[in-house]
């Protein structure tokens, strides 16, 4: 054991100092040595030594006193582990051309212990407590009631916290007893005897298989390559960006991370967030890889926000479709300061949640003005970097040409009308009526011809002309708020009042084949859907169709319901409670009625129960099935409830009818 300190040179050893005691705790690898202090040395301050002894032991004499001579005449050294991993260290002795290596199980460093100061502090607190107690005894009588408490069972989590606590570790360390030793100096005979164990006693090298290796292999064993320790970074919230961690990244990653978090930013602000002295030219190269220039400001690219093989967190729309829609929004802001949300939604045909998210990234809503771009136009950047602005303009032209092919529009459709508006002219009412009558008489023959052609198309089974629903800025607006409960249907099927009824032939004109196919596949998968949920799935289907192949346009509620009823489905008149908050299209529930399986009977009995009850219990359904059919198996019950119902608080509801 070597005794030393970082502040004391190695030449100043403790070999000649009197060692009073030595003790060890082998399991903890702790060693303590007590060494005498020369109180007769001219460098020793006697008054200070007596004061320390008085603070530690007090005025009374006791066998437990630290300093029996009433002065600080000894010093304690305690060990600490110099390293926790000693597998790469060994003690080596070179003798007669031979290197003898002994593995080490621990390396300790001895440091002065100041535990006597803790003892002095405890003495001081005890004296203060005694004085306070004596003072209050003159004025108060204290009555103490002893309460017996029973320890509560300790949870595993509480046990782990207790084990890791400092007090517990201190207690465990104190449980191992000290083993007292006898100290032998470096030149002592016993020390010389122990030193001989450092030499290998065997002269036959064949017994030591570890050394029968090549020099390169042996050196690799003796000094294995260093392994980098993995530093666990603290986990923070996903929306919190640490600037300290950010600046450890490459410049390109810094710019990308900032733009993903901020979405839109002027170039000057970006330079302010980066480290001082960062080259602006290098930043310009990086920013053009992850962002596009809109009105002199940088907006993060869509494929950075929505990487490949991801989808919308709101609606599940694929990332490819989201990127097209968001690019259209950004392109619109390159033309003017404000856009109307309903105009954007009517073109990109994405769910309102996604459209709103696109706009919130780069704009703010204004009363009667739609959505206005978030930042003022950065004219200074455009003037300072005309080459970058020109390059970005060319990029936008390429994006525009792709968007025109996908969404079928022309840039001129969005250009502000520059032609001067004529002054308003007052026209008498009788003149207006006369002009209208003449125009109607002129166009009558043309209108009759068009009507005849449409009737012929209907008879030939042509495509149905579908009404295009208006799209509103309101997020909670249904497809068709004017539709009534059964929409002109008779017994759950379209009747003469239905728009899909062929009045010429008395037959129903079938919906578009693509719509029929979608209804069939959707109800085969979900079995029970509200009209609201079906419309959501239908919108997702439209949005995910490849560019140029969208053959089904937005349909009215009435057309959708008729299409559902014509595909082996029935409407279930669920008796919602009077205080329900469900919207009208959430109260229209449809279920798959016929699939050709014997299991259809089970579903119909379930629908019959829900036409009389808003919610049911499992036992109620089981009794109904046993009464009408036969005692159902557990597998049949599980399948029926899994396909058509949802559970809450022990009750079962049809899918989509649970009210929060």
Keywords:
RNA_pol_III_Rpc5, DNA-directed RNA polymerase III subunit RPC5 C-terminal domain-containing protein, three-stranded antiparallel β-sheet, 23 helices, elongated, 660 residues, alpha+beta, 13% strand, RPC5_C, five-stranded antiparallel β-sheet, disordered N terminus
Report on the architecture of this protein.
It contains 23 helices and 22 strands. By secondary structure, it is of the alpha+beta class. The strands form 8 sheets. The protein has a 5-stranded antiparallel sheet with strand order 6-3-2-1-7, with no helix packed on it. The chain has a 3-stranded antiparallel sheet with strand order 8-10-9. A 3-stranded antiparallel sheet has the order 11-13-12. The longest helix is centred in the C-terminal third of the chain and has 31 residues, at 429-459. The protein is elongated, with a radius of gyration of 44 Å.
